[in-house]
Amino acid sequence: MPKPKLLLLHGPNLNMLGMREPSIYGSATMAQIDQCCQQLASELGYNLSCRQSNHEGQLVDWLQAAAGEFVGIVINPGAYSHSSIALLDAIRAITIPVVEVHLSNIHAREAFRSHSVTAAGVVGLISGFGADSYLLGVRAVAQLLADPLSSSS
Ligand code: CA2
To answer: Ligand 1: does its nearest atom lie under 6 Å from the Cβ of 78?
Structure first.
């Protein structure tokens, strides 16, 4: 039996991870994070596809198309978290669980980062654990799929 599929989406500038600003975002590259998440997802019984885009509309397209192919989503919407009603609407329009992750603690930085627009549409949000936020996100979505009653939404 093929494993059910999870989708990991990275928003704008996250392709730069490991190359700049390691004091904020850590030294792991996006490829390294993807590999660790794929390994964990596999151990949990899932296949994980990883995608990155700098374009809001591309992320909306992927979210809209996801429900037919994937059973759950982990997303770091990057800076779009703080502004994108389009992403919020796309997240709300799909029925599969979406978990939002952030490398940094968005509540401990500039005031404009402390509000996540997209968080209003997700099952839960993990923020501030560096690259581990992604691994915690994969665990959270897998746990939710295994035990849907554990979610309050
Ligand atoms: O902490 C996070 O994961 C963020 O989503 C990262 C976004 C930021 O706008 C959010 O407020 C919080 C920025 C990602 C930019 O990543 C870079 C990585 C290396 C060099 C430059 C940017």
So the answer is: yes
Position in ligand 1 atom list of the atom nearest CA 104: 1
pTM: 0.96
Is residue 14 in contact with ligand 1, taking CB distance under 6 Å? yes
For residue 22, report the phi and psi dihedrals to the nearest 5 degrees: -65, -25
Pick among 3.40.50.1010, 3.40.1550.10, 3.40.50.9100, 1.10.1040.10: CATH of 5-150:
3.40.50.9100
The pLDDT tens digits of the residues spanning 6-22 come to 999 999 999 999 988 88
* Active site (annotated) includes residue 55: no
H or E stretch at 101: strand 98-102
